[in-house]
Amino acid sequence: MYHSETKDYVKASIREDMNLENGNIRVLICTNVAGMGVNFRGVRQIIHYGLPRDMDTFVQQMGRAGRDGTLSHEIILMKMIGSHLKTVEPFLLNLCKNTEQCRHKLLCDAYLCKHEQIIPKHNCCELQCSCGSVDCRVKHPLLRDTGKLVDEEESRHQMNTDISDDDKRILRLQLKCLQSNLKDESDDMFSTLSDSAIDDIMINCSVILKPADVLIYATCWAYPVAVQVCEILNNVIGDRDLSESEGEEVAGLE
């Protein structure tokens, strides 16, 4: 491992081995300490487990691979839902959540650079490959499937439900405020938020990802109210309704 607490002599040994043509190290787990200014020879794959907070850091880390001009891969393994995403720069989030636009183009747009199409498209990103072959030899093996590792229902069970007591208190307080505001706005019982609905939301908050889930897991009947509930959940404990397909996703740049 290569991080800030790694002893200097260990770092030196790692750098020496990583710069040998036939070194012994095949996998190096590291933090941003191995970012800008640290050049390792022959790195062909960078795998991010989660995202850094900003695009600059991401690009520096990604840039440790392929420094000799050889085709290399950047793989991102991440949860597309969770409070950690609130601190991630929007450009970087969009790069990962995007399923239609060329990822190389999005990178260029983030830095106001002119985008030039990479030919063949195999060498750009997994979204640009158009060969139609499931067993495309150029595309990274992790990306030869649809890119989705778990379905939505399985994802719900894998989510981290360890919501802090402080967040729970804030969540309940904001839901009570919403309840009060809705009562002032309408006498229609179907457009309000009952105490039992708030209790249901508190119990199921970790699996409520979009407005439709509020209607399923809580005694709430009005979709506009469900949207407001999701906005509160998003502000307090993390992103809701990020995309049509939640879960753990793989994104790749080649």
From TrEMBL:
<feature type="domain" description="Helicase C-terminal">
    <location>
        <begin position="1"/>
        <end position="107"/>
    </location>
</feature>
<dbReference type="GO" id="GO:0003677">
    <property type="term" value="F:DNA binding"/>
</dbReference>
<protein>
    <recommendedName>
        <fullName>DNA 3'-5' helicase</fullName>
        <ecNumber>5.6.2.4</ecNumber>
    </recommendedName>
</protein>
<comment type="similarity">
    <text>Belongs to the helicase family. RecQ subfamily.</text>
</comment>
<keyword id="KW-0539">Nucleus</keyword>
<dbReference type="GO" id="GO:0005694">
    <property type="term" value="C:chromosome"/>
</dbReference>
<dbReference type="Pfam" id="PF00271">
    <property type="entry name" value="Helicase_C"/>
</dbReference>
<dbReference type="GO" id="GO:0009378">
    <property type="term" value="F:four-way junction helicase activity"/>
</dbReference>
<dbReference type="InterPro" id="IPR001650">
    <property type="entry name" value="Helicase_C-like"/>
</dbReference>
<dbReference type="InterPro" id="IPR027417">
    <property type="entry name" value="P-loop_NTPase"/>
</dbReference>
<dbReference type="GO" id="GO:0000724">
    <property type="term" value="P:double-strand break repair via homologous recombination"/>
</dbReference>
<keyword id="KW-0413">Isomerase</keyword>
<dbReference type="GO" id="GO:0005737">
    <property type="term" value="C:cytoplasm"/>
</dbReference>
<dbReference type="GO" id="GO:0043138">
    <property type="term" value="F:3'-5' DNA helicase activity"/>
</dbReference>
<dbReference type="GO" id="GO:0005634">
    <property type="term" value="C:nucleus"/>
</dbReference>
<keyword id="KW-0238">DNA-binding</keyword>
